[in-house]
Structures are given as C-alpha cells and as structure tokens.
Write a structure and sequence with these properties.
Chain lengths: ~325, ~250
C-alpha cells in the first residue's frame, strides 16, 4: 500500500511556478528521496503533503488521508522536520519535547516519559535541561528530529535534514533516520545530495523547476549518468593516445581530454583505480595524478537536463 | 486536546521565557519605572494640567502608553517563530488552530499585570493617589487589561504580516509609536496645534486614557468610558479575525 501518493501537484507564487505537476509515490515503510537543487520545489512539495499549504492543482493522500479534505486528521499521523531546526531556543531540550508531546495530545506524565526516552535515544540526555539556544547545530537537528517523532507518527517528512551539518553529525543523523525506517516508519526526505539520497532512500525522484525529471533507485540514476569517472593528469600530453589505449578495456564510453585532464567513464566496480594504475604503468605512461569520481547530483543533472544543478539553482533564484 | 488546553500550553511556553530573557523583564518592569520617574520629574513642572497634580493626570496616560507597547515582544516573537520554522511546526501538529495566537494574547495579559502593578507601585512612590471609589478603580484596572488584550491582537497581526522581526519593529515604530504620543496621554489635547489636536481627539488612545482618568482620578467622564470599551471590543473583533485568518494561510519565510 502507498503511504504517500501525489498526482499532478501544482503550486504558483505569483509568476513563479513552484510546482508544475509533481507525481510521487512512497510505499509503506519505505524511504522516498526527493532530490533537487535549491529552488526545485522540494520544500513546497513537503508543505503541501504536510497540510501547511494548499495545492493550486492536483491531489495527494498521506496514510490514506487527503491532504486538503482530511487535513485536521492527517496532522495526527505525520511528523515534520522542516528545513530549519524548528525548536524553541528559549526552552530546554526536555521542555521542547514535553511541549510538542502535549500538543500531540499526550498527557503530562506520558509526554514527560516520552521526552526522556527520546532524549536518551538521541544522545541528548546530558543536555536535557540546558536551553536549546546553547545547543550546537547537530544537537538542534537531533532535537528537531526527536520532536517530529514524539507521537510515533507512521509517516515522517524530513526537509533537507542534514543541510549545514558537519560530516560527523551528518553521519550520526543518517544512522538515526535508518533506525526509524527499520522501525517501519515511512519517510519522505528531501536533499540536494545524491550520496545522501542514495544511502537513505529506497527510491529517488529528481525534481527540477517543479517537475519530476527522473525516478529510480540510486544505482539506476547513476547508470543513466554512465557510471564512475577516472580523471588522469598526464606527465606528458604526448602520451594521451597510449593512455587511452591502455584504459580502453575499462572504458564504457569514449575518453575525453579537457584542460589537460583525460576523463574516462568506467563501470562502477571495486579495484578500478588499482587496475587503471597497473595498466598505465605497464604501458609506460607517466601519471601525475589519478582519481576516481563517483557521479554527483551535478553529473546527474548535467546528464538529465543538459544544465548543471548550480545553474538550476541560479535560475530558480532569478525566477523568485 | 481542547482549544483552551492548547492555548494554555502555548501561554506557558511564552511566560517561561520571561525570567530567562532580561530584555523582556526590563520591558515590563524597569522601563515603566523609568518612564514614571523621568516624566514626573523632568516634565512635571513644565506641563500645565489645570486642576490636577501632574502625577495624577499623568499616571493613567503612562499606564496606557506602556500597556500599548507590551505586545511589542509578541510581534517580534511571532515573527521570529515564523522565521525559525516554529509556526510551520505548530501548524503541522494536531493542535487547535487558534492556540498559538490565543496563547500569545493570554501570556500578554500576564505581562500586562506585571507592568501595571509595577507602574502603580512606582506611581504611589512619586505621589500618585486615586481619587475614586474602589469599584471604579477596579473598573479602571479592567479597562487597562482589556486594552492590553486588544493591543495584543494588533501585535499578533503585525508579527504575522511582517517579513522579519526587524520589519515588525519598523512597522511598530512608524505606526503605533506616534499614535500613542499624539494622544491625551501626556498633555491635554487642547494644548496641541490644530491638526495634531484633531488627530489626538480621534485617536482611540485618547478616548481610553480619558476614560481611565475619569475612573481613577475623577475627571469628567462624558461618554468616554462606553466609547473606550467599545474601541477595545472593536479592535479585538477586527484584529482577532484578521490575525487568525493570516495565521491559517501564512507560510514561513
Ligand atoms: N512563499 C513564497 N513566495 C514566493 N515564491 C516562493 C515562496 N516559496 C517558494 N517560492 C519559490 O518557489 C520555488 C520553489 O521553492 P522551494 O519549494 O522552497 O524549493 P526548494 O525547497 O527545492 O529549494 C522557488 O523558485 C522559490 O523561490
Ligand atoms: Mg527547501
């Protein structure tokens, strides 16, 4: 059964078309990643699905409830973590969770107990009675996520949950999200990073300018880009031919030379780097630098739209 | 949970921050004290208030003016909640849709009680005295709190339509600040130039200050008391509807 279903969602802000017919579907207990650059329409989609915004067109159901007609009932079934950590800085971590618990309808005692559980689980027990204003960015995000989970909602919406976090906090948040999924919660998360979507999401929809431009698993999307990419800086540009020949067996597309860097598209596989180096060495090619690049959101974008994600974000800013 | 329960939870959230935020505390205690003391001693001798001690004339004015500013923190708070995404979160919860604003206006009543008590105590120290019956004094207190409640709804609306706390602050400075001065709060309107006098006489703050003066120090009341109550009820009716409608449709910025 689908926990999240949306068909033809449209939203306009004056002249700006924020959503231009978005279709989505997430099975119960799965994670759907919504991937797109700044201004693509991710937040607008989340706002509509969480009843904060009425769509101008199209329809959506979450947990079987219509986001417009059954909005009031739906609010009891969802948890939302917005783009900013929406917690009250003038309250302590514990006070925040108790407040949200009670607003979800828990009694005082139950709310307090639940707050304690979540603080423990999110490694915030030691900071429970400190004002949130003194928390680090990572701690705020964890508290924000805890607040979204207070009522054990069956469907969870996370809008760019790790944007602005340092790598360590990011990984620890990923682990928390994974634990939620293991617990059977359906999650829709938005992100600008392919690696994040790939790690967390079962399926990914890529959106740009308010339209879904691709859909699939992370591996499927990367395949459309053409796999990984070797970048080789040669000691002597006269050896370009020899290098290309040496790597011909690994290459899955014609090699290119740009700014003195030889680029070779390769199938994603373990040991590619070592193999490439051995072959180049055997052919007597002098290598200054050799690196392997996984496709990024930008590569996916370039392939799917012919323009880069940065350009898409810049366009969106101009539109706004 | 009931709408009342949710509103009380939100009011509690707002009141909790008072002792933690020195600015808020200064706003409702030190600032009224400073105004009472400064105005009494700096201007007291210069302004003629025929038939009354200046402090007796003046205290109802300062009370109403101070109360008209208490909600400032509410406007900034709501604007800040919008910016930080908290309003989005509240609107995504299965709570009463009126609770956020009702909670704000309720906690403002608490702030106003503190501010009013501070000003009265300070007023007594500098020589203020009621010249009225206990019933009228109590009615005056009621009017002050009713007026404060009405202003809270105005500030809720300002907080919701402003694009940032800074712009909320600017709107207040440009609209509400002058309105509170161009009134009978500090000087009799008779002493003002013609245009200002016309504005001051039409200003609800003048009506409310005059009503409070008559309740507390026995100036002639005329129809002021009925009009003052009517103004407050009208402001509440209009701005609670405007603010609630805006809250329902607002999007975080
Ligand atoms: N409240 C608003 N008023 C006007 N334009 C908006 C508003 N919210 C979003 N937009 C515009 O809609 C588009 C999509 O925005 P958004 O959904 O926030 O994108 P994302 O979350 O992917 O960065 C952007 O062009 C943005 O500028
Ligand atoms: Mg966004």
């Amino acid at each position: 059964m689908a926990a999240i279903e949306a068909e033809g969602l449209r939203k306009e802000y004056g002249d700006v078309i924020a959503l231009d017919g978005v279709d989505l579907r997430a099975e119960e207990g799965s994670v759907l990643g919504v991937l797109g650059p700044n201004g693509a329409g991710k937040t607008t989609t989340v706002r509509i699905l969480t009843t904060l915004l009425r769509p101008d067109g199209g329809s959506a159901r979450v947990h079987g409830l219509d986001v417009v007609r059954d909005a009031a009932r739906l609010r009891g079934e969802i948890g939302l973590t917005g783009q900013n950590a929406a917690v009250d800085e003038a309250l302590t971590g514990q006070e925040n969770l108790i407040l949200f618990g009670r607003l979800y309808g828990l009694r005082r005692g139950a709310a307090k107990e639940r707050a304690g559980e979540l603080l423990e689980r999110f490694a915030l027990s030691a900071a429970a009675s400190r004002l949130v204003g003194t928390y680090s960015g990572g701690m705020r995000r964890r508290l924000d996520l805890a607040a979204a989970l207070v009522a054990r909602p069956p469907v969870l919406f996370l809008d760019e949950p790790t944007t602005g976090l340092d790598p360590r906090s990011r990984i620890s948040l990923w682990e928390t999200i994974e634990a939620r999924v293991a617990a059977g919660t359906t999650v829709l998360l938005t992100t600008q990073y392919l690696d994040e979507a790939e790690r967390l999401a079962d399926r990914i929809v890529v959106i740009d300018h308010g339209k879904v431009i691709a859909e699939g698993t992370g591996a499927e999307l990367k395949d459309r880009v053409g796999g990984d990419r070797l970048e080789i800086e040669l000691g002597d540009l006269g050896q370009v031919g020899a290098a290309s020949a040496a790597l011909a067996e690994l290459a899955i597309a014609p090699t290119t030379l740009h700014d003195g860097i030889l680029r070779v598209a390769v199938a994603p596989a373990d040991g590619t780097l070592v193999q490439a180096l051995r072959r180049l060495d055997a052919a007597g090619v002098a290598v200054d630098d050799l690196s392997l690049h996984r496709p990024t959101l930008d590569d996916v974008f370039l392939t799917l739209t012919g323009h880069s994600a940065q350009d898409a974000a810049a366009d969106a800013e101009e539109d706004a | 949970m009931s709408a009342v329960g949710d509103a009380l939870l939100m009011a509690q959230r707002n009141l909790r921050r008072i002792p933690r935020n020195p600015d808020l505390l200064v706003g409702v205690t030190f600032q009224p004290v400073m105004f009472v003391v400064l105005f009494t001693y700096v201007f007291g001798g210069a302004i003629k208030t025929p038939g009354f001690d200046y402090i007796d004339f003046f205290l109802p004015g300062i009370v109403i003016q101070m109360i008209s500013f208490t909600g400032y923190a509410t406007a900034l708070g709501i604007s800040d909640d919008l910016r930080k995404g908290l309003i989005d979160r509240f609107r995504s919860l299965p709570m009463s849709r009126s609770a956020v604003l009702a909670g704000r206006t309720l906690s403002d009543v608490g702030m106003n009680v503190i501010a009013l008590a501070t000003m009265l105590i300070c007023g007594f120290v500098v020589g203020f005295g009621f010249n009225s019956t206990p019933g009228k004094i109590a009615a005056g207190v009621g009017l002050v709190l009713l007026f404060g409640y009405a202003m809270s709804w105005v500030y809720c609306f300002v907080g919701l339509i402003a694009s940032s706390p800074e712009s909320a602050s600017a709107m207040i400075t440009v609209v509400i600040f002058p309105l509170s001065f161009v009134s009978s709060a500090y000087v009799p309107t008779d002493s003002m130039p013609k245009v200002l006098r016309a504005i001051a006489n039409a200003n609800p703050i003048t009506t409310i200050v005059d009503a409070l003066r008559s309740l507390w120090v026995g100036t002639p009341a005329g129809t002021d008391i009925a009009f003052a109550v009517l103004w407050c009820v009208g402001i509440i009716a209009v701005f609670s509807v405007l603010a609630t409608a805006k809250y329902r449709s607002t999007v975080a910025r």
